[in-house]
Amino acid sequence: MAKQEDIFKKVVAHAKEYGYVFQSSEIYDGLSAVYDYGQNGAELKKNIRDYWWKAMVQLHENIVGIDAAIFMHPTTWKASGHVDAFNDPLIDNKDSKKRYRADVLVEDHCAKIEGKIEKEVKKAAKRFGDAFDKDQFLATNPRVVKYQEQIDGILKRLGKSLENEDLADVKALIEELGIVCPISGSKNWTDVKQFNLMFGTKLGASADSAMDLYLRPETAQGIFVNFLNVQKTGRMKIPFGIAQTGKAFRNEIVARQFVFRMREFEQMEMQFFVRPGSQKEWYEKWKETRLKWHLSLGFGADNYRFHDHEKLAHYADAAADIEFKFPFGFKELEGIHSRTDFDLSSHEKFSGKKLQYFDPELNESYVPYVVETSIGLDRMFLAIFSKALQEEELENGSTRTVLKLPAVLAPTKAAVLPLVKKDGLPDLAHKIIEDLRWDFNVIYDEKDAVGRRYRRQDANGTPFCITVDHQSLEDNTVTIRHRDTMAQERVAIDAVRAMIKEAVDIRNWLQKIQ
Q: Where do the annotations place ATP binding (predicted)?
């Protein structure tokens, strides 16, 4: 656990040092769980968003994108269920005076048991070597099977208690498991209570006439209320999807783990409208499709897993999370939900307007069912950044810190470095930059020895360093250094653009999932 905390501290520190993420309003001591993205963070975030949009919208003939407003009519949130049911179960420790999400305390307890399973796996892998079969070991080892049964039993009971709103049993479960406050180490807990997460605000110039509004807690409802607008103007035929990215706001009482859980965050969501009765088939299809998208970034299948929900939301008939192995363990990265026809039917009821689709093949009208894919952009940012940050021991015994971001997402694609700041080398370097910047985000770096500049660009996640030296003036060649391997090769200046394009082209990355 200590090692995981150390790794996570390095992630947070590195993100600030290299201009990726800053504490919001830091000069005023900041706001808890609110962050600003710096010059590199904004670029990485934009590239992730573009990578998602390209895969979800541009590469699908039957999916379009919208950009709905943050402010929505307040009845929207009554219809969606957020006014009555958008709650977190909270519990206070009487000694530390700290507040926690009760379900997260239980899930963290299960994560510790998972840690024991991982230790058993590592010991067995070391003992059996190449002959080790991980899947067989997980299924047959008595100690591991017992640990897994404990986890399954705990989560099943938690899910049932939350579904039945039996908060007394949630507290009883915490007490039975002997869960202690991480701050005080005490088991002196209050009762569990529900807390609504929506931020309230007002619309209007005077207090007398102002309308009570909410900052949207999700982006999905903007899609649902625009269902007919998009379907009719786009002449969309079932099945089809509507996607959007945008800010959402939740009054998280227990916000933590850097940008993993924030009060102001960004979502990337797609609602896929299907015929009633076909939703389970599409649900499985989108689970597979979305996992392939994640795997296309090259972080390895071992860092992802599906987690089926024990407790289903009031609108769902199936739900699963794609979980990612963050420095603090496996946590939700993306949700895939079969939402039935709850949303459109509810908006029909509360608005008095028909939200139905006439199916010419069936010659009938119906309220479509919906399969949702929803991913937090900030969580995706953290997943990529934390997994990319590595410390490597080199052959000469030294170490380097390198941010191995997928080249397609890297904020800066190349740094152009004149070997020295004289003899016309800076002029040629600037000429190369002027040519490349039409296609790529590139920077100029002339400060410090070239070896130190390489290390700086490694830590910044830049895939290529292009070094201009005296030979460049003679034969129009440069040295290209590859971040991940540190290999160097001599290439013609005219060939540089094509080399970078091949490495960072979205087409080359996304074709892996076709």
A: 250-252, 260-265, 332-333, 376-379
